[in-house]
Structures are given as C-alpha cells and as structure tokens.
Amino acid sequence: MGSSKQEASTKLIAQNRKARHNYMVEETVEAGLALLGTEVKSCRAGKVNLADSYATVRDGEAWLMQCHIGPYSHGNRANHEPMRPRKLLMKRTEIDKLAAKVAQEGRTLVPLRLYFKHGLAKAEIAVARGKKTYDKRATQATRDAERQMRRELGRRR
Fold it and tell me: Model's pTM, two decimal places?
C-alpha cells in the first residue's frame, strides 16, 4: 500500500534508455538537482534530453554534465543556458564514496533518469562499467531467449 503512494508522488521527467544497454549498472544513488526557475518549468514541460549526459566529481562537488534542458518557451532574457553544468545535491560522504568508486578502472557515473519527487527535482545516478560489444550481444540473446520461453508458455496454457 505504501509503494503505490510513493509512486504517485514521483513524476518522471526523462529517462536515459541507452544507459542500461551501453553500461553494466553496479549501484544507483539518488541526488537532488539544483535548477533555475526556467529549468524547472522546462522540466515540467518534458523538454529534457539525457542521451549524452554524465556525472562527474570535481573539487568535492558532484556535477551533471551535458544534460540538455531546452529553453522555456515563455522565458525572457533571463532564460537559462540549455547545456550548462548542474550541481548534484548529495551529502559529502556519498560524494566521497562515488569518487572512490569512479577512481577504479573503467567506471563512470551515468544518470539513468530525472524525476520530481514530492515536488523536488531528483536524479538517479548509477556507478556503471562500459559494456563491450560481445556483452551487449549476450544480453540481447538472453533477453530474446526469455521472451521466447514466455511466448511458448503462453501458447501451452
């Protein structure tokens, strides 16, 4: 009963669909997102693209880079820059843990989705390792095999 109430309080803004295809997700964390007023209005309108975005840790602060939030249609000269770096709001200990994990070989921080939770903008950030081409093929093959098994079970019923 509590989970449906929690789902009702979150509204998805954007999702990075390619992330799970291109990366093996090891761990996810939730971070707040520092946005300007016109950016919030653009997010509510759904003008967000996470396709090439990534997160990084610089000078003890976490940043969301290359995330495109389109200009607000009714914004005036104070409208925001679409590709500006945005600060991720996290506790110092969480940032230090992420920095230590990213320092290991072949790991990166990838945003999986942006959403509003209780009216606040949040980002789900994953510590991920890049997949090789053969890993992508193996994942696709297992997914196809599972789909085929479900199809056969459905026919037998």
Answer: 0.77
